Amino acid sequence: MDISKYKGIYLQEARTHLAEIESGLLSLEKDPSQKDVLDALFRHYHSIKGMSASMGYTPVMRLAHAEEDLLDKLRSGKLSLNSSMATALLKCLDALRELTDRVERDEPLDVEITPLIDELTASVVGGSAPAATQPPAASVAPQPKTEALRLSEVMKVEGSVFDDLLATVGDLFMALSSFKALSHSSRSIEIKEGVHVLGKSISTIHKNILSARMLPLEDLIAGLPRVVRDLTSGSGKEVSLTSEGMDISLDRAILEGLASPLVHIIRNAVDHGIESAQERVECGKLSVGAIKIKAYTRRDRAVIEISDDGRGINRERLRKKAAERGLSAERLASMPDRELLKLVCMPGLSTADKVTGTSGRGVGMDVVKDSVEALGGALGIESAEGKGTKIIMELPRTTSITKVLIVSIGPEQFLLPISKIERVIETGKDDIGGGVFSFEGVQVPVVPLAELFGIAEKARPGATLILVDAGPILGAGQHLAALKVDDFGDEIDAYVKPLLPPISKLWGATGLTIMGDGRPVFLLDVQQIISKAAGA
Amino acid sequence: MSKRVLIADDTEFFRLALKDILGRAGFTIVGEAENGAMALEMAKGLKPDLVILDVVMPVMNGLDAAKAISALKLPLKIVMCTSLGYEPIVEEAVRSGASGYIIKPLSETKVLNTLNSIL
């Protein structure tokens, strides 16, 4: 029989078993006596072995067989789980995952598994050496293909399909904008009505795709217990990880972008926050440190808080480090605590003096902050010395369609978020003197975008100024700034994608949209541009 | 008339494979159980001619299910289905009521030969 058609169901079930195995092993490590967990683990390995043998995935079968064998001894009480067994089993799990991925990609299954099986055997201390780790002799010969063609009953949809769908809806929104403009100048009721219906339908599709792209936080954090285990292993620290509100769902792209900041925050908490068990007991804390992840929604945004009950951020050391990086002592002394804590996100500033095996790899909180902001989110830090630290991330739940204004500088086009724009002014060049423009009696600083971006501007008599709300950056009650551009175009609904690595650190842009004709156009980061221009 | 078969295996992969093999050979699949307890209940209700039982299953394993189903004294045959290395165990099952066994990995020939020799 043709086995290839079972590959889909094989992958699906194997991955379910692997996920169960991981949580089972971690729970067993805490309490090795759980008979039901041992039984379940045995069955998971057994199922993977059986399926892999049928599919002819011999290395997977051999590995699962060795693990099943060990689990059989554990569940029958012939052996009891020790930490080297757990480590070996987790290593094997990683290998099984790798093998499964290779199966999916149709790559050769040439992962070295014999050392893993040896390690598994070696981890059995005190028990009789399991001779049964040798693989079963039978090999799975390819079977003749005899059955009629039939389609698989399992359908899997790649996440990228939704990316494409969403991008297409972005294009539709843009095409709609053009039609809207046409319909305004048209007298035909039919056209106006048609455009209206089209707009409603596109919005409905948009909403449906957005909800199909949503995944619960649970899916992202499922791997964290393992991260914590690996971080604490051999560190003399014990950490319990708890979570709350993980049923809140976010767009897949946002969750993806969150993965690395999240691991980094947890890593910081384990390495720099949580004290060693001994140190904790000495200062009257429970020996096991606690890391809590809590998520909730605030209006249409998701808030994720990661708190630990460790030693907190040492302000004195933070001031010292910041001073070393050139901040004046006076400024540091008068800085409010909230501002001081923000310094943790200064590039290159890490408050830990010691570089551990897992932290201090040159990736700091500045990268975390940048990643969160690239997703359209904001990062906050609260910390009480001796009591712990809380990192707060506020994030959009969906990547969305944003109203933007197209502006041009020389031959280039850029987008500005409508929400930031106060007014668009056409003016003569002479009205701009000394880098300021007088608007309703207020002196507004002019930011020449062409100069900032190094683009040659068009030669023309006048200038176009986009008055934007700069927020609190400029200080002294001044909120407006004028971005100088060559021209402005349509106001459109754009599907703005967050910038993801490798371009996530691109200066001056927060997102990217693909125009109807396939050109990528950047959404400008108004705040960042004005801060730079103002020299802040 | 085509024979009525009940399949019990906790792995969907194997249920699907068995269904395909048996379906093509003209058997009627009357039910699929995910564990021994479900198989026992379904055997009572569905009156199959044949029950195929996987050995390693949660809740109630295949051996216990085979004993319980045999005890019902229904006009049906039981075939055990298990992985390589479990032959001694299924042989015990055969002594306590099963008519035969199939060793995984499944092959169409192996499955049909076993079933034809029993039915």
Name the chain pair whose interface involves the most residues: A-B, 26 and 21 residues
Low-confidence stretches of chain A: 126-148, 357-362
List the helices and strands of chain B in order: EHEHEHEHEH
Class derived from helix and strand content of chain B = alpha/beta
Oligomer: heterodimer
With helices defined by DSSP (H or I, 4 residues minimum), what is the helix count of chain B?
Answer: 5
Please, how many helices of chain A? 17
Q: Largest beta sheet of chain B, briefly?
A: 5 strands, parallel
Query: Class of chain B in CATH?
Result: Alpha Beta
CATH architecture of chain B: 3-Layer(aba) Sandwich
Q: Under the CATH scheme, which class of the largest domain in chain A?
A: Alpha Beta
Number of domains of chain A: 4
Q: What proportion strand of chain B? A: 15-25%
Give the rounded overall mean pLDDT of chain B: 88
The share of residues in helices of chain A is: 40-55%
- Total strand segments of chain A: 19
How would you describe this protein?
The complex is a heterodimer of chains A (536) and B (119). Chain A is an alpha+beta fold and 536 residues long. Chain A folds into 4 domains: 4-133, Four Helix Bundle (Hemerythrin (Met), subunit A) (Up-down Bundle), CATH 1.20.120; 161-215; 223-396, 2-Layer Sandwich (Heat Shock Protein 90), CATH 3.30.565.10; 401-533, CheA-289, Domain 4 (OB fold (Dihydrolipoamide Acetyltransferase, E2P)), CATH 2.40.50.180. Chain A is 43% helix and 22% strand. Chain A is built from 17 helices and 19 strands. Chain A has helices at 7-30, 35-55, 58-75, 83-104, 114-122, 159-185, 189-213, 217-221, 224-232, 252-273, 277-282, 315-324, 329-334, 337-342, 365-374, 449-453, 526-533; strands at residues 214-216, 238-244, 249-251, 288-298, 301-308, 378-384, 388-396, 401-409, 412-417, 421-428, 432-433, 436-439, 442-448, 462-469, 480-485, 487-495, 497-498, 509-514, 520-524. In chain A, strands 10-14-15-13-12-11 form a 6-stranded mixed β-sheet. In chain A, strands 2-4-5-7-6 form a 5-stranded mixed β-sheet. With 119 residues, chain B is α/β, with parallel strands linked by helices. Chain B has one domain: Response regulator (Rossmann fold). Chain B has helices at residues 12-24, 36-46, 62-71, 87-95, 108-118, and strands at residues 4-8, 28-33, 50-54, 77-83, 100-104. In chain B, strands 2-1-3-4-5 form a 5-stranded parallel β-sheet, sandwiched between helices. The model of chain B has no long low-confidence stretch (mean pLDDT 88). The chains are: A alpha+beta (536), B alpha/beta (119). The A-B interface holds A 1, 6, 9-10, 13, 39-40, 42-43, 46-47, 49-51, 53-54, 56, 136, 138, 140, 143, 146-148, 150, 153 and B 10-14, 16-17, 20-21, 24, 56-58, 83-85, 104-108.
